[in-house]
Task: structure prediction
Amino acid sequence: MNLPATQPATHATWLDRASRLSIRTQAFIDGRHVDAASGKTFDDISPIDGRLLGRVADCEAEDVERAVAAARRAFEDGRWSAQTPVQRKKTLIRFAALIDSHAEELALLESLDMGKPIDDALHVDLAATVRCMSWTGEAIDKVYDEVAPTGPDELGLVTREPLGVIAAIVPWNFPLLMATWKIAPALAMGNSVILKPSEKSPLTAIRIAELAIEAGIPAGVLNVLPGFGKGAGEPLALHMDVDGIVFTGSTAVGKHLLQCAGRSNMKRAYMECGGKSPNIVFADAPDLDAAARAAASGIFYNQGEVCTAASRLLVQREIKDEFVARVVEEGRTMQPRHPLEPGAPMGALVDEAQMQRVLGYIERGSAEGARLALGGRRVLAETGGYYIEPTVFDEVPREASIAREEIFGPVLSAIGFDSEQDAVRIANDSIFGLAAGLWTRDITRAHRVARSLRAGSVWVNYWDGGDMTAPFGGYKQSGNGRDKSLHAFDKYTELKATWINLKA
Result:
């Protein structure tokens, strides 16, 4: 389904491909597509225009039992877990290559399913997905065990062993990339995985299960259960034969899953949750135009449906009015368009419920005293899709809902500050601690402020830096554990200490 290399991808081209796309909607258990045991389905609606994409298997407790049993069998008989690191490495690299060769098909599924622009889906999400899978595959045989320091009469070994059966529950905003951040290191370490995609964006998860089999990952090692949190997610979190659960999503759901882990078998539980990330612009920022572009893209990219969205803009008061005006002008150029139109800066929000949630926050922002400087309205309603224009609030009270709660939409809250200490205090005054950014010419200030910010990622003089070589995760109620980098492997392994008496 790939386009010829010489053929430019136009709006008409993508629309034509969308009309001919074959969409899988069943669960994937023990190496094959199956209906939900109950026969139930749910409607998968495209946020682009409100049309039905398919009726997807609505998995529940009985399906969870089938998937866990298949994953446990696969783990215990060693069809994957007992393979050598080099064998698993070769398979994951083949898996990455297959994802790459199907990148346009998968990007189209992502765009149709959750509304993001096709350019972003293809050139950002799929590119990063391939990079994650291939990097992780290459890293498998670079992870060493340890020899403890001992005397001559004993030998101490520290070895990593796979946890066993991993449940991975992933969100709808970056469906395939977030799934890959979980399944790649879990598979690399020899675990079996049950992937539960969001009911709002299940299509790419279902599709890559087939590609996993084609790559050589044995049946039962990667299973996919589409469905809702109550029907499939919670039973996975409570299951006594699931050894670990990893999650990306809201803080409220993350807390609930932690409770489920404690109520069941004390399974290892790692949550990557919400954010309300501060983007701090000092008066001595090296390039205010670049900072304004980054401030706009940091909140409007992916329709603001990003856990690290730069949703709080903290600007030193002496430049605030001028800087916010620049951000507003940048925002005017980022109006939503049809996601299959190349170059669209924004697409549709994932569904009507999310659109109404965002509009509700916009209404509250005005009611709580913030000044609406840009946007605030639904647009393109005639398409049947769910679009909101870029929205900027200025003079936002620090206690306002839009300054404290995660909106997950294209809504920016601008707040003034007077001093470095004031900026750090405002930035850290949040239950979240996922990411933060700062803009300054002063290298000592950059180091000082970066160390003071309670966030898992801090970016200086740009937004959203990093790659697969660095860990990603948050402080406070933004979660625990880390995705990406070699540190991610820690979540999917147990450490075993073995002591050998050499005098025997």
